[in-house]
Amino acid sequence: MIISRVSWGSTMLRAARVLGAAMLAVAPLLFTVQPGGAQPVTFACQPPSTNTNPPGDFLTGGGFILLPGANGNSVHANFGVGGGCKQGGDGHGLWGHLEYIDHGSILTGGAMLNAHWTMITAYAVDIFGDSRARFICGTATTNSPTPLIPSTVNFAVRAADDSGSGTSDKFDIQLTNPTSIPIANAVVYTTFGTGSPPPFHPLVGGNIILHKPNPSTMGSINNESCPAFPAVLNTGTN
Q: CA angle, corner 18, sides to 145 and 3, nearest 5?
């Protein structure tokens, strides 16, 4: 039997999409919300203990990482992210933003995923010991590319400014379902690997910048939350 390249490629793509959907179906069992190696740490956004609470840093960045594609190739995942310890205004919680596009990796079965922030709920130092990394958490809307990824999600981003040029910077993201179906905050999408600590995705293009403390970022935010990655705030209620 002679199978054309087009037919073979279509068959493999369909198989990859089925495999990707199957992986997402068991994601709550395969991926934990707290990868190994996480340690309790002090919040970046500490409530002021005195009237002279020192200002905090803030982070901005953009670029892309590479994820495995549904047909064995590599797929771009683009992002723009920011966060810091100051009020965001307009009901947006903390200051910050997130835009994320997975251009059809195996994590979505080959479908494109777009996540757009609606509120920033936490900004914290790294739980894996990198002094140049920060976690930014919040809520987002998505295009719901698969039945398992809802149109509203909680997100947690880990971004690391590990070089001035961006060549060693890293970015990872995790999305959870805010409802209790099948379980509360089940992981529906994650680029975090397994391990202690897990491997992090280096930027292939772009740059992440951890800015110096700024007087406008006073670190006086209370009631932070990070449902998509509870270990980020596991030292108590801020």
A: 120
Q: Say if CB 237 and CB 184 are below 8 A apart.
A: no
Q: Is residue 2 predicted with pLDDT exceeding 60?
A: no
Do 213 and 80 contact (CB within 8 A), yes or no?
no
Instruction: State the amino acid at position 86 in one-letter form.
Output: K
The string of pLDDT tens digits covering residues 91-149 is 667 889 999 999 999 999 999 999 999 999 888 889 998 989 999 999 999 999 999 99
Strand order in the sheet with 152-160: 187-190, 170-176, 152-160, 133-142, 112-125, 94-103, 74-87, 58-68, 205-211
What pTM was computed for the model? Answer: 0.78
133 near 126, Cβ under 8 Å? Answer: yes
Residue 23, classified by CB atoms within 10 Å of its CB into exposed (0-12), middle (13-18) or buried (19+), is middle
| Closest C-alpha among 163, 138, 127, 161 to residue 44 | 127
DSSP string, 52-110: TPPP--EEEEEEEEEEEBTTSSEEEEEEEEEEEEEE-STT-BEEEEEEEEEESBGGGTT
Omega of the bond leading into 40 within 30 degrees of 0 (cis): no
Backbone φ and ψ of 21, nearest 5°: -65, -40
- For the chain, the domains span 5-233
Provide the CA 174 distance to its chain's centre, in angstroms.
4
Kind plus residue range of the DSSP H or E element containing 27: helix 27-30
